[in-house]
Specification:
It comes from Vagococcus humatus. Belongs to the ComF/GntX family. InterPro entries: ComF/GntX_DNA_util-trans (IPR051910), PRTase-like (IPR029057), PRTase_dom (IPR000836). The structure is a single chain. This protein has about 240 residues and is an alpha/beta fold. The chain has one domain: Rossmann fold (3-Layer(aba) Sandwich), CATH 3.40.50. The chain has ten helices and nine strands. The strands form three sheets. A five-stranded mixed sheet has the order 3-4-9-8-5, with helices on both faces. It is globular, with a radius of gyration of 18 Å. The structure holds zinc ion (2 copies). The site of one zinc ion has 8 residues, from α3.
Length: about 240
């Protein structure tokens, strides 16, 4: 029996064929099936989406992505998320990020592992948070999701500017502004030559894409590399 991280009810978590016969770490399911149904899973969501960022739209490429294509003509990667933002997830993020309940990072560990391990021979790069946030919260909520999902990662991007929370700004403010990131050059130098040159930048939530494109711009300083992006949720 497992205890659900959200409702504290005991539930039965049967071993699947995949658990037994794959090399994946044996991560327990952390939520009962009724709690899992509180969230909108991208794989179950229907309706037309933007091919590049999964925004709900009738167009093949949404307006946000067209804007980014103009600004970053050399970038052709795409964004994928595990969940779609909904009121239950908003409440979850409130407890996780703003009340600092670190253990909640276990909630999606198994699903996140299965989702991200579809990407082979890539290096995962988490979005860094500001030092102020780190002091207040005590942990980087993006890295914590990867840690509990047993996804190895490298902190190739560092934060230089102490920017305020993106959510407290208007859309226009979020879209403009300066790049708060820099490349961790020491770590790049230390990486072996046989390292894969394909990267997945990972964030907790993808909304306008502004943060992600700054991170892409920073990582592209490495040179000719492949970059795609992922997040726990799509705003
Ligand atoms: Zn539950
Ligand atoms: Zn798009």
């Amino acid at each position: 029996m497992n205890q659900c991280l959200l409702c504290q009810q005991d539930f039965y978590d049967p071993l699947t064929f995949q658990d037994v016969f794959s090399w994946s770490p044996l991560l327990p399911t952390s939520m009962c099936s009724s709690c899992q149904q509180l969230f909108t899973w991208q794989k179950n969501s229907q309706g037309p989406q933007c091919q590049r960022c999964q925004k709900i739209t009738e167009k093949q490429v949404c307006l946000d992505c067209r804007h980014w294509q103009k600004l970053y003509p050399h970038y052709s990667g795409s964004h994928r998320s595990l969940l779609v933002y909904n009121p239950s997830l908003q409440e979850w993020f409130h407890q996780y990020k703003f009340q600092g309940n670190k253990q909640l990072a276990h909630s999606f560990q198994k699903q996140l592992y299965l989702f991200l391990s579809n990407y082979k021979n890539v290096i995962f790069v988490p979005i860094p948070i500001s030092e102020n946030r780190m002091k207040k919260r005590g942990f980087n909520q993006v890295e914590q999701l990867l840690k509990y999902a047993k996804i190895p990662y490298k902190n190739l991007i560092l934060r230089t500017i102490e920017s305020d929370s993106q959510t407290s700004k208007t859309k226009q403010e979020r879209i403009s502004g300066t790049n708060p990131f820099k490349l961790n050059k020491q770590m790049i130098t230390d990486m072996k030559d046989d390292c894969p040159m394909s990267f997945i930048i990972f964030d907790d939530v993808y909304t306008t894409g502004r943060t992600m494109y700054w991170a892409i711009e920073t990582l592209q300083e490495i040179g000719e590399i492949e970059i795609n992006t992922c997040s726990l949720a799509r705003g």
